[in-house]
Design goal:
about 400 residues; alpha/beta; Rossmann fold; five-stranded parallel sheet; 12 helices; globular; fucosyltransferase activity; transmembrane
């Protein structure tokens, strides 16, 4: 007994270890069994991609257990290739959680970049980024259930890969164009409260009130243009050939050109920070796209719009800026008869604070929003739609011919 009592603490520790060991293995077997059945608890949302590695290669349907006890099949979405250094489109994420965290109306989907997670023809959808199209295309495809989604955010005239589209057969599109199945323009302007019943009267009243309280004479510069070439789309020569209207504008008004293609430079390195610096000095900024394409509007316009600057654009082509920005929030050069007329109007606004501030009335009613994740939500819903059949028999016609893209070097 003395020996037993002396060794009792050690025996107690051994017993705890044995209980823990068998309890852990029993729990692991139960957990693995639940994965083999491919049933995930709906209430926890804790399942990430790494949790399903043991499930690789299984042909069982992926089921999600709902709070009412019923189950639903998860639709699986494969990011086929990279999207500017990442795989998940606009940092949406992986697994099931992003669909819940983004409040998708239909969240019963699962995203991954792992091609080996299951048999390739079992994925419900493949998102294929056409910039830098891969050579390793799927060798087989289940045409009855699998959908290909074309992803693109750059103008087609700057993507040499578009020539391969005639060999591809896509079901849906996810591009900057508003007529895409899942539109992803650079940004949206969201209305955050109801508009005044008398817009024009409100705008004039706002301008006068703002001019009285915040005169604009603290800005010593009038008009600026920021040009940064993009390695993927253009160079300084392209920018120097900007449409004839804007090219003739400096003959009638002074324009300070910043950036890699200009005579002036910004201290900040990023384009966005440079805009913030220009905001302190200038009243207007030219934001001309390097390509005239349907619905093609990039960062410069939306960045300027979000600051205390009035963007000057050249619509009149394929892009209707009114589809993207509030009324009287920018100046469209195409509405003027000549560069001289535009220059005179800018000088008029410069001398009349009330009229100048009318272009900022909308800031109390709208804010810039990024809804790129909504495209993935909509894709998930579409995959669960029994009437989802869609097919582009001639993607090159839709993406190239219908877009009618031209470099922005035309004389307007």
């Amino acid at each position: 007994w003395k020996i037993f009592i002396k060794n009792l603490p050690m025996l107690f520790i051994v017993m705890l270890f044995i209980l823990f060991y068998f309890g852990y293995n029993l729990d692991s077997k139960q957990s693995r069994s639940s994965f083999d059945a491919a049933v995930f608890e709906y209430s926890t949302y804790q399942y990430k991609e790494q949790d399903l590695l043991m499930y690789r290669g299984s042909k069982a349907p992926w089921l999600l257990r709902k709070p009412d006890g019923n189950t639903t099949r998860l639709k699986t979405i494969l990011y086929w290739n990279e999207f500017y250094g990442r795989y998940d489109t606009y940092d949406f994420g992986y697994g099931h959680d992003p669909f819940v965290e983004n409040n998708c109306k239909v969240s019963d989907c699962y995203t991954t970049k792992d091609r080996a997670l299951m048999s390739l023809d079992e994925f419900d959808a493949l998102i294929i980024h056409i910039r830098g199209l891969p050579n390793d295309w799927p060798k087989s495809r289940d045409w009855d259930k699998q959908s290909y989604v074309m992803l693109a955010i750059e103008a087609p005239i700057y993507l040499s890969e578009y020539r391969q589209l005639e060999n591809l057969q896509f079901n849906w599109t996810m591009t900057y164009r508003l007529d895409s199945d899942f539109p992803i323009p650079y940004a949206w302007m969201d209305r955050i409260k109801p508009l005044p019943s008398e817009i024009e009267a409100y705008i004039k009243s706002f301008g006068k009130r703002k001019a009285k309280n915040s005169p604009s004479n603290d800005k010593v510069g009038l008009l600026a243009q920021l040009n940064y070439p993009s390695s993927s789309s253009t160079d300084c020569e392209d920018l120097s050939r900007t449409d004839g209207f804007m090219k003739d504008l400096p003959q009638h008004i002074s324009i300070d050109v910043y950036g890699d293609c200009g005579d002036l430079s910004c201290t900040p390195k990023s384009v966005r920070d440079c805009y913030s610096e220009l905001e302190k000095k200038y009243k207007f900024i030219i934001t001309v796209e390097t390509a005239d394409c349907k619905d093609y509007i990039t960062e410069g316009f939306f960045t300027a719009l979000g600051l205390n600057l009035i963007p000057i654009v050249h619509g009149g082509g394929l892009t209707n800026y009114s589809n993207f920005a509030p009324y009287k929030s920018f100046i469209d050069a195409s509405k003027f008869e000549s560069p001289a007329a535009l220059a005179n109007y800018l000088k008029l606004l410069d001398s009349d604070d009330a009229r100048y501030y009318e272009y900022f009335w909308w800031k109390d009613f709208y804010k810039k929003g990024f809804h790129h994740h909504q495209a993935l939500c909509d894709l998930c819903a579409k995959l669960h739609d029994k009437e989802r059949e869609s097919f582009y028999p001639d993607m090159q016609k839709w993406w190239i011919n219908d877009a009618k893209c031209t470099p922005a070097n035309k004389d307007y």
